[in-house]
Amino acid sequence: MTEITDDNALQPDTGQTADMTRRQVLYWRLLSRLFAADEQPALETASVAIVGDLGLPPALLDPGVSVDTLVQRFPELGAEFQDLMAEKEHEAGDEVRRAALVSKLLLNVFSTGGGGNVTAAQLERWKQDAGWFEKGMGCEPGGLRHSPGDEEVAAVLANIEGDLVKRMHLREVLADPALARQLTPSMSLIEQLLHDKHNLSGVALANAKALIRKFVDEVAEVLRTQVEKASVGTIDRSVPPKRVFRNLDIERTIWKNLTNWSPEDQRLYVDRLYYKQTARRTTPARMIVVVDQSGSMVDAMVNCTILASIFAGLPKVDVHLIAYDTRALDLTPWVHDPFEVLLRTTLGGGTDGTAAMALARPKISDPRNTVMVWISDFYDNRSLINDFEAVHRSGVKFIPVGSVNSSGYQSVDSWYRQKLKDLGTPVISGHIRKLVFELKNFLT
Question: Which SUPFAM superfamilies does its entry note (predicted)?
């Protein structure tokens, strides 16, 4: 065994210890600002000194300065915020600087000023800071809402935004065109607009409709891209291929006639041509979408009405849309326009799926060619399971969906979850791309 005789080997690394202390100061200061209204003078003074030693601007410690403003004044910080909290290797020796930058992102996003009133400008600034937070996580702004592994973080951000929207005097903001123009549509904002639309009139109602229309168009563009990525139909093998030149299968023709190769002539003699089959099924598929419009399912209501309109625009797809709480409403006449659908819904109230099933069952005329999508958190009348079993046994493709929201994070009644799993139709919970995938599989 080798004996250690160098006294320095037993001494702590003073530089490393100092860095650890400075990081602790920055994080203690962050926690104190997040959980206490009063500043701690000692922590503030020490943090200012640390930031100064790092060559960072004092504004980094001011939660009143947005990350956008900070990056505009000091452009070199933009690259440092990118991927700041992503799972990757960071350069050794930059732990203190990284702690200072991380503290800025966390303070600006998670310190929202208690229960005070929020202005339109403050909401928009928070959204921008949340965008920088997502960049720090290694995502594009809004990327957490599209990443299956980040549902919980996305849900937290959505809850914070929802709280900010509720603390804003939305009616007064909408009544002022200048303030209304400062708003950018988001799911939290749209939820509040849909809840409050019957209390709006004049300029306020017009501005609310414009925001809803803009949000619907933006989400529709994203969902349309996801739908179009999949194939558009399966080839019907029962229909003989049309014998025209454009359908000629050259590779198969050569392969099947290889026995006719003449070495002497160096030629391939073809005695049969093979053609590609291109005919597709002509029977329209019927899609019945049933959406729980109670207060807990706002996100699903918005996403599914938009998704239904996209599928309704596809050839050979006959889409029907039903929304329900304690009553059911057949929205099929407006299925091509999700904006009009949303204006006709009344969010909130109880849940009784039997009323919706009474409207949906008569729409099933060809079970084997019908898909029924039922979107709910399934905190419902438990006798409804009998209807689900009957629909499934009839040959209908039954797809129960527990959440198709931005974050993919949703509570589903555990009793219904197990019953539907036993039925062989497990509840889909996650991002809306999962529902798109299931529907495309059925239609193709």
Answer: vWA-like
Pairing relation of β-strands 397-403 and 428-429?
parallel
Q: Are strands 267-268 and 285-292 parallel, antiparallel or unpaired?
A: unpaired
How many Cα atoms sit within 13 Å of 219 on the Cβ side? 29
Helix/strand/coil for 132: helix
* Annotated domain spans of the chain: 14-168, 235-281, 285-443
| Secondary structure element (H or E) that encloses residue 321, with its range | strand 317-324
pLDDT one-digit tens code per residue, 166-209: 787 888 888 888 888 888 888 778 878 887 787 788 999 899 99
Nearby residues of 369 by Cβ (< 8 Å), 6 or more positions away: 283, 284, 285, 286
The predicted-structure confidence for 373-420, as pLDDT tens digits, reads as follows 998 888 888 889 999 999 999 999 999 988 655 444 557 888 999 999
DSSP state of 288: E
Question: Cα separation of 262 and 256, whole Å?
Answer: 14
* CATH architecture assignment, domain 285-443: 3-Layer(aba) Sandwich (3.40)
Distance, in Å, from the CA atom of 163 to the CA atom of 145, rounded to the nearest integer, reads 18
